[in-house]
UniProtKB/TrEMBL annotation:
Protein name from the UniProt record: VOC domain-containing protein
Record Gene3D superfamilies: 2,3-Dihydroxybiphenyl 1,2-Dioxygenase, domain 1
Residue ranges constituting the VOC domain according to the UniProt record: 1-102
Organism: Streptomyces siamensis
Length: 111
């Protein structure tokens, strides 16, 4: 996954310092981050194909509180959907990174 940013240096620092993701330096400050376990789903659409990226967590309220303590800005209230709880955090570049607590069985821990 690659995030394209209008302020890549600030967004890299945010992912490193605020989200706390482990990383390696691929050279010249190009940080590559280890992501938490991930899943992929394929949904039907009648519109143009698109892709979405969400950071998943087990306890969205705890993650939001922890990020707020680190100075992160949440972009809205947590919304409750039948399948999960959602919000987003604002990156320094101004873009949003969605956060998601699934309320359905998850696949990321399957062998």
């Amino acid at each position: 996954m690659i995030l394209y940013s209008q302020d890549a240096e600030a967004d890299r620092a945010f992912v490193k310092d605020v989200l706390g993701f482990a990383h390696v330096d691929a050279g010249h400050g190009w940080l590559i981050f280890k992501l938490p376990p991930a899943e992929v789903a394929v949904h039907p659409t009648d519109g143009a194909p698109k892709h979405e990226f969400y950071l998943m967590c087990d306890d969205l309220d705890a993650v939001c509180a922890q990020l707020a303590e680190r100075g992160a800005e949440l972009t809205g209230e947590v919304t409750e959907e039948r399948w999960g709880r959602l919000t987003a955090v604002r990156l320094p570049s101004g873009s949003e990174l969605p956060l998601y607590q699934p309320l359905h069985p998850v696949a990321h821990s399957l062998d």
